[in-house]
Amino acid sequence: MHYKGVLTKMKTENGSPIQYYLVFKNDFLHVNQLLDKQLTIQFAGYECLNCGLDKEIYRQGFCKNCFFDIPQAADWIMKPELSKAHLGIEDRDLAYEQKVQLTPHIVYLANSSNVKVGVTRKTQVPTRWIDQGAHEAIEILEVPNRYLAGVAEVALKNHVGDKTNWRTMLKNEIKDENLVTWRDTLKQYIPEEAMPYFLENNTETHLDFPVLKYPKKLKSLNLKKTPQYTGVLKGVKGQYLIFEDDTVFNVRSNEGFVVEIAVS
Ligand SMILES: [Zn+2]
Question: Could you give the CA distance from residue 137 to residue 125 in angstroms, rounded to a whole number?
Fold first, then answer.
């Protein structure tokens, strides 16, 4: 079977195990059904996720012009504490910023390679955790806007990590942590303005990734350097495809790349 389309991050459905889908315009692949099959991935150009042009992708699936222009790629996306829609202040497009920022947000602890703090819109739970490859996570605050979530995250970052070590995550060299204990320990560092939104009774969510064999060493597939790759799929974790020869492919960091995929 042959498929062609522009890569976007895989859609997921939580379950045992999690179900992954690669969605193209006219087609989709149920990635779980490709386990143990041989895939050939061929680089076939670019298609910016905003303007649709065949221009080199700069970041987050966008060409350079779009990345520095559109509201979906503004700084407050990666740094929620820079959000200003709650003050009525525009960054790039106030209507868009109000729609995205002035909705319930979750501050969570997730364990992907180590315990880290993160922020996501409430509608993105547990999608966000799946995308990060976290095997366990817990919601610790539910706040009414992105700014408050960002302020709490910044305060907690001084006492817990905020990054995933993707190598550790993919090799599955992980530890079970008691996130309830972590939450109770970190509570004292939550800023006063966010405290009314503390969630004291939540329990851990555990996530089950479809991986038959974890890699020992890691070789990251870069389609710019290696425009064609063939390998047997052995798993999916986070937004990574894991192959039998220890090659891993980060679908998310290749958003906007047009690929042909052959399955045999
Ligand atoms: Zn563009």
Answer: 10
Distance 6 CA to ligand 1 centre (A): 13
* Mean pLDDT along residues 46-64: 98
Any idea which residue has 């910044």 for tokens?
154
What letter does residue 92 receive in the DSSP assignment? Answer: S
Cis peptide before 126 (omega within 30 of 0): yes
Contact present, 200 and 138 (Cβ < 8 Å): no
C-alpha of residue 50 to centroid of ligand 1, in Å: 5
Percent of the chain beyond pLDDT 90? 98
The pTM score is 0.96
Task: Using the predicted structure, report yes or no on whether residue 26 has a pLDDT greater than 90.
Answer: no
The total number of residues shown for the chain amounts to: 264
Separation of 64 CA from ligand 1 center, angstroms?
Answer: 7
Ligand 1 mean position, distance from CA 43 (Å): 18
Instruction: State mean pLDDT over 157-183.
Output: 95
Beta strands in the chain (DSSP E): 2-6, 11-13, 19-23, 28-30, 38-46, 57-59, 62-63, 105-111, 115-121, 136-143, 205-206, 219-220, 228-237, 240-243, 247-250, 257-263
> Average pLDDT of the chain?
97
Asked whether residue 1 carries a pLDDT value surpassing 90, the answer given is no
For residue 67, the CA-to-ligand 1 centroid distance in Å is 7
User: Which pair of structure tokens corresponds to residue 138?
Assistant: 């817990």
Q: How far is the CA of 210 from the centre of ligand 1 (A)?
A: 33
Cα(47) to centroid(ligand 1), Å:
8
Is 110's pLDDT higher than 90? Answer: yes
Determine the distance separating the centroid of ligand 1 and the alpha carbon of 245, expressed in angstroms: 34
